[in-house]
């Protein structure tokens, strides 16, 4: 079902259904970093959510950072997974309810976006720093570009990418603009999911993944249909196309 690399350019890469991938291929260990790289509408969150739900546990809780005022995909995720909760603050206040598998950190918004950015940046900074110290968790940053450019949290993200693995703190990061994402998003991820992109600047960044043939990656990515993803697991050089 999956192809091991390095491989010669032109080699076929197997396509497998998403349900089969989740059942037979996907494995996650505490501290693994995961990167989802694709333009708007490619289905990043729809791919990431089932992977996240399957990977968290009592020992490895999840924390999803939400920057948007409204996000129907996140709202649906909360409705469909009763072992996840929303919190508008971090640290999360004590609760008598059963401890969930994960938390969606979704702060309130006001009518002042500038003030919101300052307040949310402080909240997310505290979470990123705290989870690095405590380890054994998954932090899903769905808006890497916003966290870096708008909130100035690049240093916190790089700390997790470069040193979080040994602490068991895995950073799951998604971006719409591959050529603007920090290099660590490519070089430090154990698992990468790449969607179709026609932008040459984006394609050139794939050379920073390491351990795989960038020409093969570009060849496969350029031919991907919508809602298909090229999956790369770097430790054992596995490659496959994940279908809808």
Which labels suit this protein?
alpha/beta, Rossmann fold, 244 residues, single chain, 19% strand, 11-stranded mixed sheet
**Through-space gap between termini:** 16 Å
Largest sheet: number of strands, sense, barrel closure: 11 strands, mixed
Calculate the mean pLDDT score and round it.
Answer: 91
- Provide a count of the helices: 9
Structural class: alpha/beta
Q: For this structure, what is the CATH homologous superfamily? A: P-loop containing nucleotide triphosphate hydrolases
- The appropriate CATH architecture is 3-Layer(aba) Sandwich
**What is the C-level CATH assignment?**
Alpha Beta
CATH topology name, in short, is: Rossmann fold
Shape: globular
As a percent range, the share of helical residues equals 25-40%
Describe the 3D structure.
The protein has helices spanning 18-25, 44-55, 72-80, 113-134, 144-150, 154-163, 184-187, 200-205, 214-222, and strands spanning 3-4, 15-16, 34-37, 62-65, 84-87, 102-105, 137-141, 169-175, 191-194, 229-233, 238-242. The chain is globular. It contains nine helices and eleven strands. α4 (113-134) packs parallel to α6 (154-163). With 244 residues, the protein is an alpha/beta fold. The protein has a single domain (3-242), classed as P-loop containing nucleotide triphosphate hydrolases (Rossmann fold, 3-Layer(aba) Sandwich), CATH 3.40.50.300. Strands 1, 2, 3, 4, 5, 6, 7, 8, 9, 10 and 11 form an eleven-stranded mixed β-sheet that branches.
Strand and helix map with partners:
Elements: E1 3-4, E2 15-16, H1 18-25, E3 34-37, H2 44-55, E4 62-65, H3 72-80, E5 84-87, E6 102-105, H4 113-134, E7 137-141, H5 144-150, H6 154-163, E8 169-175, H7 184-187, E9 191-194, H8 200-205, H9 214-222, E10 229-233, E11 238-242
Parallel strand pairs: 2-11, 3-8, 3-9, 4-6, 4-7, 5-6, 7-8
Antiparallel strand pairs: 1-11, 9-10, 10-11
Helix pairs in contact: 4-6
């Amino acid at each position: 079902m999956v192809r091991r690399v390095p491989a010669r350019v032109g080699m076929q890469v197997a396509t497998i259904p998403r349900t089969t991938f989740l059942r037979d291929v996907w494995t996650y260990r505490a501290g693994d970093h995961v990167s989802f790289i694709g333009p708007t509408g490619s289905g990043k969150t729809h791919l990431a959510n089932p992977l996240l739900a399957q990977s968290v546990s009592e020992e490895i809780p999840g924390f999803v950072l939400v920057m948007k005022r409204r996000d129907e995909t996140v709202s649906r995720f909360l409705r469909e997974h009763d072992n996840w909760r929303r919190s508008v603050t971090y640290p999360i206040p004590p609760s008598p309810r059963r401890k969930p598998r994960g938390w969606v950190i979704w702060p309130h918004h006001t009518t002042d976006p500038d003030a919101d950015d300052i307040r949310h940046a402080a909240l997310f900074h505290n979470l990123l720093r705290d989870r690095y110290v405590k380890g054994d968790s998954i932090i899903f940053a769905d808006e890497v570009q916003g966290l870096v450019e708008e909130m100035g949290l690049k240093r916190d993200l790089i700390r997790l990418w470069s040193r979080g693995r040994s602490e068991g703190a895995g950073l799951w990061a998604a971006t719409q603009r591959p050529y603007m994402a920090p290099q660590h998003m490519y070089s430090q991820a154990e698992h990468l999911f790449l969607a179709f992109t026609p932008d040459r600047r984006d394609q050139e960044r794939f050379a920073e993944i390491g351990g795989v043939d960038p020409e093969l990656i570009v060849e496969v990515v350029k031919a991907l249909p919508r809602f298909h993803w090229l999956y790369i697991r770097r430790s054992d050089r596995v490659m496959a196309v994940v279908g809808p």
